[in-house]
Write a structure and sequence with these properties.
This protein has one domain: TATA-Binding Protein (2-Layer Sandwich), CATH 3.30.310. It is built from two helices and seven strands. Helices cover 21% and strands 39% of the residues. The protein is of the alpha+beta class. A seven-stranded antiparallel beta sheet has the order 2-3-4-5-1-6-7, with helices on one face.
């Protein structure tokens, strides 16, 4: 992460129909470092984002964290999600917790 990365979570998403390992692999192949914890959570980060990927009891995946809100970065995140075959929705918020951008799969 760099000094411009927010110190609060400004990105929230859910993913259905894709395994947690597949999502981690997609992000790893798209430029994120990926590290799995002993409890099965993934930490995905690069110089402009820091995400945690978890699997819920209902098999839904949650990918949340902090990202430098910039068009280039958003495009890279959208491209990673577009590779997934499942259903997803993503939301970006500003420091005042106002929704500033959202995107989702056509199935969401």
């Amino acid at each position: 992460m760099n000094s411009n990365t927010p110190d609060f979570n400004n990105f929230y998403s859910y993913i259905n129909g894709v395994s947690i390992d597949t999502v981690a692999s997609i992000f790893a192949n798209s430029g994120w470092s990926a590290k799995c914890s002993a409890c099965g959570e993934w930490k995905l980060c690069n110089e402009w984002s820091d995400f945690i990927l978890i699997k819920t009891a209902s098999d839904e995946l949650l990918l949340n964290g902090a990202v430098v809100f910039d068009k280039t970065n958003i495009d890279k995140i959208e491209k990673a999600f577009a590779i997934m075959k499942g259903e997803y929705a993503c939301e970006f918020y500003d420091i005042d917790k106002n929704l500033v951008l959202e995107f989702k799969s056509v199935r969401a």
